[in-house]
Amino acid sequence: MARKSNAETAANPGRLKQIALTYKMTRKADPKVGLIVAGVGIVTFGVFLAIGFLIDHPVYLGILGFLVAFLAMAIVFGRRAERAAFGQMEGQPGAAAAVLDNVGRGWTTTPAIAMTRQQDIVHRAVGKAGVVLIAEGNPNRVKPLLANEKKKMARIMPDVPVHDFIVGTGEGEVPLKKVRTTLLKLPRVLTGPQITQVNDKLRAMGDLMSNMPLPKGPMPKGMKMPRGGKMR
Questions:
Q1: In this predicted model, what pLDDT tens digit does every residue of 86-100 receive, in sequence order?
Q2: CB of 164 closer than 8 Å to CB of 147
Q3: Calpha distance 82→12 (Å, rounded)
Q4: How far is Cα 28 from Cα 87, in angstroms, rounded to an integer?
Q5: Which is it for strands 108-115 and 162-167: parallel, antiparallel or unpaired?
Q6: pLDDT tens profile 110-162
Q7: What is the dihedral of CA 192, 196, 199, 200, to 10 degrees?
Q8: What percent of the chain is modeled with pLDDT above 70?
Q9: Whole-structure pTM over 0.90, yes or no?
Q10: Which residue from 182, 184, 187 is spatially nearest to 168, judged by alpha carbons?
Q11: Is residue 213 helix, strand or coil?
């Protein structure tokens, strides 16, 4: 019991520090976040308290209002923090890979399966929707990369659906903040065992990055070298 209590005590400061850092980051992109979140809490609590006085139960409604206000503040803060984070990531090389890492269970993601010297990148995700190729960079440069990867997929897995899209804000492109929802909305056509077979075939293809010239300059921030990747 003592060990559990000590662990919880040690974890709380870490959570509070993380919340504080998230707030500071969000406030840089959204200076009014504090006022908006506080306003949501005050209005929500005030509405419940007013209803409590009207029905002659101010204490009960006050407690309920406090809990609901806290929940509303957390939801609003979370959404604005997420929006701020996407705003800072927008346009950064490798940003889509970071989003893919958080798509959820059932998806296997492989970052940077193809790349140009200008750091235009194609990532791959495998799930119940099949194979999804996600490109970020100049559309004119990534389209040939996508076409090449789709040909490879069709050659080794002709019966597996292959989807592709480009991350961006232009016409026909998918904004970074909608990458996750776009993947989750795709029709589910593969079963668990079929997904395993697809991943096995892709692993058998070998590491595409090992046979591709690396771009000049530093690797994109947050990008990981795939297993088996070799520097030349």
A1: 666 666 666 777 777
A2: no
A3: 22
A4: 11
A5: unpaired
A6: 888 888 888 888 999 999 999 999 998 888 999 999 999 999 888 888 899 99
A7: -170
A8: 78
A9: no
A10: 182
A11: coil
Contact 79, 175 (CB under 8 A): no
Q: Is the pLDDT score of 188 beyond 70?
A: yes
Rounded to whole angstroms, what are the CA distances from 183 to 45, 119, 133?
Answer: 37, 23, 10
Distance CA 226, CA 115 (A): 13
Distance in angstroms (rounded) separating the CA atoms of residues 163 and 183: 9
Torsional sign, CA 7, 13, 16, 18: negative
For the chain, give the percent of residues with pLDDT over 90. 30
Q: Around 58, how many Cα atoms within 13 Å sit in the side-chain half-sphere?
A: 4
The dihedral formed by the CA atoms of 12, 17, 19 and 24, expressed in degrees to the nearest 10: 170
Q: Give the contacts of 45 (CB within 8 A, at least 6 positions apart).
A: 62, 65, 66, 68, 69
Read off the amino acid at residue 91. Answer: G
Q: What is the CA angle 142-138-206, rounded to 5? A: 30
Average predicted confidence (pLDDT) for the chain:
79
- Residue pair 189/161 in contact (Cβ under 8 Å)? The answer is yes
